[in-house]
Structure prediction request, 676 residues.
Amino acid sequence: MKSIVLKTQIITFALFGFMLVFAQKSMKLPIDAVFYMEINGKQLNQKINWQKLNPLLHELSKKDKDKDKEKTSWNDYSKTGIKYDATQYHYASFNDSIQTYTTHFIVDNKEKFQEFINSTKKKGLEISKKKNYSYVDIDDNIFVAWSNDRAVLSMVNYTKPYKDIWSDAVVDSAATAAADAAVAVDSVYVGEPEKPFDYKEEIINLKDEIKYLKDNIKENNKEITRIQKDIKYLEKNHKYPKENVDTQHSEVEPDVYPKEEEYEAPAVDSAYQKELDSMNIENFKIVKKIAEDRFDLYFSSNLELEVPKAMLSFRDPNSDAYVYTDYGRMVNDGIYGKMMKRFEFGQFFRNAYDSNSYYNLYFDKDKVKLVNNYQHKNPGIQKTISSVYKGKKNKKLAELINDKSIGYYVMNVNGAKSFDMMYDLLQDTGDGEYKKEMELMMETMKIILDEEAITKIAPGNGIFVLNELKSKKVDYTDYEYDEDYNEKEVKKTKDVAVPNFTFAFATENEGYWNRVFNVMATNKHLSKKFSKIGNFYAFKDEKGDGYMDQLFMTVKDGIVYLTSATENVNPQSQSDISKQWAKDSSKYPLSGRLDIQRLVTGLEKEFKTPSERKTLDLFRKNVGEMYFKTEVKGESIETEMDYKIKNSSENSLMYFFDLFDEIYKIKEADKKPQIL
Prediction:
C-alpha cells in the first residue's frame, strides 16, 4: 500500500514538474518601452454613444478611402469583433532607427473581426497564416495579427542608421547589422535562435514584393502622366490651366491636353525607380520582420502581458485610462540627449530630465480629470524637488482673485530650496572631465551667493491674474505687390486683444525694489519711457502700436505689483466661489484657473473669416473652465487638472466627440461651392 502511495506521489510531482517546465510564460513588456498605457474598456465602453460615434467614424473613414479611390464598406464600428469592454494595452519604444507602437486587445467574435480587417486592408492582399495566428499588413508599416480571442496591432517605422553628427561612431549597431542582412530584430529578441529557412514563407514574401511593386508602378504612372500634361499645357499657354474638379483644366479649352494614349508609356524600369523600389522593399522587409518577431513572441506566450511593477506605481484601477512615460529616456536617448553629450555641462540637463511621469485620466459626467504624478529617478534629487514645493503661504496675493477674472496662476514655493535643487543637479554629473572643477565652482557659488538675502528679495510667492481682454486698434505696415512684383508699403489698422492683468509677488526687501524702479525713472535713457506718478512708477510706449503700451509698478505692504491698471492692486470683491479659489491658492504650492469661454470671447477680434466666426460661436457655447492644483504626495509631485464641460453631452468623453463633429461639419460646409 505504501509503495502504491509513494509511486502516485512521485508521478504527481513529476507531472507537476513537467507542467512548470513547459508552461507558457507571460510576454514581458519590452525593456526599451518608454510609454505604456492601459485603457479601461469596462468603464469607457459604457460612456460611448455608438449611435453618435458611428456616423462620424464612417464619414472620416469614407473621406480617407476617397483619397485612394476606394469605396468604404464598413459603417458599424461598434461591431468590429473587438471586445470593447475589456482592457487594452498600448506601449511604444524607439531608438535612432526603429520606432514601434503596439496595441493588445481581446477579440470576442473572430469572424466579425476578420470581416473588419478585410474591409480595412489593401484590396487583393492575402492574409498570412502562421502556426498559431494570422496576420496582414493594412498599410506599409502597420500590421495586425490575431488568434481566436486575441489581437495585436503593431506600427513599425524604420530609418536606415546614419552617421551620428554628435559622436564619431555610427549609431544603433544592432539595427545596422539588421539592415545589412535585410532583417531587423529588436534588441529584446536578439538572443533568440534563428529559425530554419521556410521556402513557403519566402514565396509569400516574394508575392508581397510583386504586389508592392505593381501598386507603386500604377501610382507613379498616374503621376508621370499628370506632370506630362502640365508640361504640354505650359509649352502652349505659358501658364497653368484654370482649376476644374474633373479635368483640372478650363472648360473653354477642353482639348488642350492630349489624350493619355498619345503619350508614350513611361519607363518604369528606370534606374531611379529601381533604386526607389529597392529601398522601399528593403524597408518593408525590415519592418515586417520586426512585427513578425513581436507577434511570434506574443502568440507563443500565455497571451498575458507582464508589466514591471515600477510602471504601475501610481495606477488607479478606477481611472478610465492610465499612462506611464519614461520622460528621461524619451529625451536623453533621442537626438537631444546626444547633442547634450557634446557640451561640458550637458549632464546637468540630462539630470534634470531624468524622471518618470504617471497619469490617471477620468471622464466624469461633468468634467475631465487628469492626475499626474512626477517622480525623479534619483531619490535624493526627488527629495530636494519636493522641498521646493513646501513654501510659505501668502493670503494678500489671494485677495487679487475675483469672480470676473478670466484666470489666474498662483505660486507658493520655497525659493531658498531652489538653490539646493540646482546644486544637486550640478553635483550629480558623473566622472566627467571637469568633475573637480564643477565641485569647486559649486563650493564657490555657495560662498559668494548670500542665499538668504536673495530669497528675501523674492521668497517664492507670486500670482498672475488675467482680469479681461480689451479690444484696441493698432497701426501696422503691410506689403502689397503689383503685376511686376514691385513691393509697396501700405499702412493699415487692425483690432487686437489687449490684456488687463496683474502680476504680483511677495518680498521681504521693499527697499531693493523701490531702488530698482527709481533707477528706471531717473536714468537718462530709461526715463524717456519710465516716470513716477504718485505712488506708482509708469512705463509708457509713445507709439502706442503694441499690445502693452502702458504698465504700472509699485511696492505696497510687502508685495511688488506690475499691472496694466492702477486699480488692480486693491483687494477685489469676492463671492463664495472666488473665496474658495483664494483659499485653494493659499493652500497649494501651485494652483490656477482658466475660464476658456471668457478667453475665447475676449479674442473675438482675432476671428476674421465666416468659418472662423462659426467656430468662435461654437466655442462660446461649448468650451468650459479649467482648474489645476499641484502638491507633494508621498515621493512624488502630484498635479490634478480638471476641465468642466458646458454643453448637453452625455458625459465628458462624448463631449469631445460632439465638439469635433461640429467643427468637422463647419470645415466640410466651407469646402462646398456657394450657390448664387
Notes: The radius of gyration is 32 Å. The first helix runs from residue 2 to 22.
